[in-house]
Amino acid sequence: MKKLSLTLFLFASLLSCKKKSEGDAPKCVQDKIKSFERSSTCGDANVKEYVFKGDPVYAFDPGTCGADMTTEVISSNCNHLGYLGGISGNTKIDGEEFSNARYTKTVWKK
Predict the structure, then answer these.
(1) Are 58 and 72 a contacting pair, CB within 8 Å?
(2) What is the per-residue pLDDT across 8-32, written as a single tens digit (0 to 9) for each?
(3) Residue 96 near residue 82, CB atoms below 8 Å
């Protein structure tokens, strides 16, 4: 009985640990996440949703396994808005500090 309980607990734990919840994102963002997942090499790569200038945006963070990597920011209809970070340390999207964005949730993580 203990083995069965432990097995059920472990199985339920694995099911509840969703690696991704991109199903909430618009279809074009979901497609971009699938491509990003295949190409990302860092173990801490992620996609986060923010509200920026009143609209949802998505930040595709490649993680920390490389130097001077950039985080692409796109709109909910997949228009490219800009890159954060990189060798220049850019902190602005469309002329506004991205620190003004409000974090909503993590949509996907490796």
Answers:
(1) no
(2) 444 444 444 444 455 789 999 999 9
(3) no
Q: How far is CA 15 from CA 19, 46, 80, 92, in A?
A: 10, 20, 34, 38
The strand pairing partners of 51, in sequence order, are: 56, 102
3-state DSSP helix/strand/coil % of the chain, to nearest 5: 30, 35, 35
Which DSSP state fits 80?
E
Coil, helix or strand at residue 61: strand
Strands (E), the chain: 46-52, 55-61, 70-75, 80-85, 92-93, 96-97, 102-109
Q: Which residue has the tokens 């734990």?
A: 13
Distance in angstroms (rounded) separating the CA atoms of residues 58 and 1: 46
User: What pLDDT is recorded for position 82?
Assistant: 98
Q: What digits encode the pLDDT tens for the residues 94-104?
A: 999 999 999 99
